[in-house]
Amino acid sequence: MRRFVHGHDASVVASLCCRLPAHLFRSKSHRLSASPSPLTSAVSSLLHRHYRSHGSCGMVLHLRGMKGGILQKVRGYKLSLVLTAVMCTTLVIWAWEKTPALSVIFPPLERFDILSPVVPARTSVTSSDDTHRLASADKNSSAADEMESSSSNETEPIISLPASESSTTSTPNNSTSDKDLKESPMQEKECNYAKGKWVADTRRPLYSGSACKQWLSGMWACRLMQRTDFSYENFRWQPQGCVMPEFSRSDFLRRMQNKTIALIGDSLGRQQFQSLMCMASGGETSPEVEDVGKDYGLVKAPGALRPDGWAYRFPTTNTTILYYWSASLCELEPLNKSDPATHYALHLDRPVTFLKQHLWRFHVLVLNTGHHWNREKFRGNRWEMYAGGVPITDGELADMRNAKNLTLHSIAMWVDSQLLQHPQLKAFVRTMSPRHFVNGDWNTGGSCDNTVPLAGGSEVFQDRSSDPVAEDAVKGTSVTLLDITSLSQLRDEGHISKYTLKASTGMQDCLHWCLPGQTEHYEAEQLNASRTPFFHASHYSKLNGSCLEVIPFLLMDL
């Protein structure tokens, strides 16, 4: 300690002394003697020399020892530690406000954020995640056909925005204006991509929904359905004060050369995957793209309707884009491997096995979950909650909201713990995509018939995410939040609604999005964050965003 004191400027030592508890300055025998401790002597000598030449605060601390935690009389001064601490603190605060150099070390008071406690997502258990059935694919079926989802009559939770958190109050902006970008140059601050507005843009969509049949499932290609209004395709998201460059597939593939993008999640994650494939291929048939699913164990099991995921490689740049189905993101373990109808242990505190096996191969990882966290889904899938390797019997933890909360926090912490071993990886957690059922739910006559774009407004003003569980899960980690909830809440006209390829069942899909459409903007958000020169996930773990176009933009500088 004496070596430390003599190796530093007295002003620094004085400031440090003001922060240290009194007992550190007492000798071991302070109860029996008033002799100073070695630290006291060293500090006293240095401070006395500095005081004679500079006369700065804390020099009056010429310490000679303590008794009972009180400084003894030194050169006629009888100052207590409390008074000294007050004096030093006052001068430090004064110097903080007046000295630019200190402002670099200690940020201004207004920049400190108050972290909110974990708040359960505002959800109610109501709707369906998958509303269409996969027909058995023959040998001539396209990749898109093989990616159709299976049917389900189980319910999904709805995420809604209370009036106090309403995302918009403005009227639609029907003009494409890049003037906003020129008048709002980027500043060196975190770019909140979720705060901004939708603007009309005749350059959208980024690919043709009728031409991208190789990758796009027919059940999501609204251009192939009876729908006649496609105005929802002609908008782009403009973040406030952030530059959102145009997407270029060649630039995207070049920047993603020798890299792998992995999307893991539910059917909304599969929509994101298909949209990204259409963007990367230009929406055109691409026979040169290779199916590399076998490299990741993504093959259709005997009797299965589809594999657990898909993986494709663009050979010109060795860019791989893959999707893996995991509605909960949790490890699933059969309780009786010999029983085909066995129940499964769903380990809330363990990431899905596929992620643990292949994380080392990924450069970009996008995780999402949410619409399967309800009792009907759990019963239908025969899932039983486990934590710590044992069944959950605690009623509070067994609550769906708390179980989902635990899972998101667990997987964010696990991924964060792996980033040092995998420095090439950039990881995202995507927030909940909102549903827009009106006058009922998916199985009670609920609908989303609106076709007027931005009928409820075009802007998002709030700074916080409308999915607080996901937002809080990534806080303090190097995992980035891909926040699409509020900006998607404005686009109720973009759902599949009542339109289908086959005869209507009478039920509407107000959860999934027409492709192309809303989903492309999620890609753009993800790409754009990486382009921001001052952005780094380890410094700012909340990336807010713009509906699936956003992901490619965020990846541009990886």
CA distance, first residue to last residue: 45 Å
Shape: globular
The helix fraction, in percent, is 25-40%
Number of domains: 2
- CA gyration radius, whole angstroms: 29 Å
Main β-sheet description: 8 strands, mixed
User: Please, what is the average pLDDT?
Assistant: 74
Secondary-structure-derived class? alpha/beta
* Side-by-side strand order of the widest sheet: 8-9-10-7-13-16-18-21
Transmembrane segments: 76-96
GO molecular function, one term: xylan O-acetyltransferase activity
Pfam families: PC-Esterase (PF13839), PMR5N (PF14416)
Protein name: Trichome birefringence-like N-terminal domain-containing protein
Relevant terms:
alpha/beta; disordered N terminus; about 550 residues; TBL_N
List the helices and strands and how they pair.
Blueprint: H1 2-6, H2 10-19, H3 38-54, E1 66-67, E2 70-71, H4 81-98, H5 100-105, E3 123-125, H6 143-146, E4 157-159, H7 179-183, E5 196-200, E6 235-239, H8 249-255, E7 260-265, H9 267-281, E8 290-291, E9 309-314, E10 319-325, E11 330-334, E12 344-351, H10 353-358, E13 364-367, H11 375-381, E14 383-387, E15 390-391, H12 395-398, H13 400-418, E16 426-430, E17 459-460, H14 468-474, E18 480-483, H15 485-489, E19 495-497, E20 509-513, H16 520-531, E21 542-544, H17 550-554
Parallel strand pairs: 7-10, 7-13, 12-14, 13-16, 16-18, 18-21
Antiparallel strand pairs: 1-2, 3-4, 5-6, 5-17, 8-9, 9-10, 11-12, 14-15, 19-20
